[in-house]
Task: structure prediction
Amino acid sequence: MLLCLQNLCSPEEVGQLRQLAEESDYADGRKTAGWAAREVKRNEQVEAGPRIDTIRTLVRRALDRHPLFNSFAQPKAITRMLVSRYTAGMEYGRHVDDALMGGRRVDLSFTLFLSDPHTYEGGELIMEGIEGETEIKLAPGEAVIYPTASLHRVAEVTRGERLAVVGWVRSLVRRPDQREILFDLDQVCRSLFEKSGKTDELDVLLKTKSNLLRQWAED
Result:
């Protein structure tokens, strides 16, 4: 299951992130890829330094305040974040992200788009699933979050420049089916509250959601 997050960052925040990214130094993206993914990775990534630290801080704040992200991911930690740049001829072939980063398990990956999709061609994030492929190309400030275990790729950019922040999340809830149950319950509870306010039935649903989280969470 994947989820698109609208309005993760405001236009002003996107502008700030883009400026920081454009002022940064870049290195070959293969430096951070695993031994197999390195064979199909052709992009650039921002080097370590104060600008990438500021970018990470801004994106963490945006994620922390986004209710859908917190409901969907049940985040324990954001383990890593990178800024990737693709120009004409660059792509990232079919791969799966590492299960461990910095010695810690990662459960979810996200891509925050920073470039206007009309300014570049190609560069779609393509997810593979049992129902086929899903192509994702979002507006600046929007993000998609998906299971780290998913096979995916970034299509070749044929014109322009694709800038994005990519990151990985360790969830309090390891199993994706359990996270989906908690997410569905949370969305139903919020919808019922908006329609009818706090009711006895809603209290029972909230108790059930809390008890499932207590049972499944790894704190």
Summary: The mean pLDDT is 95. The longest helix spans residues 176-196. Residues 3-171 form a domain with the Jelly Rolls fold (CATH 2.60.120.620).
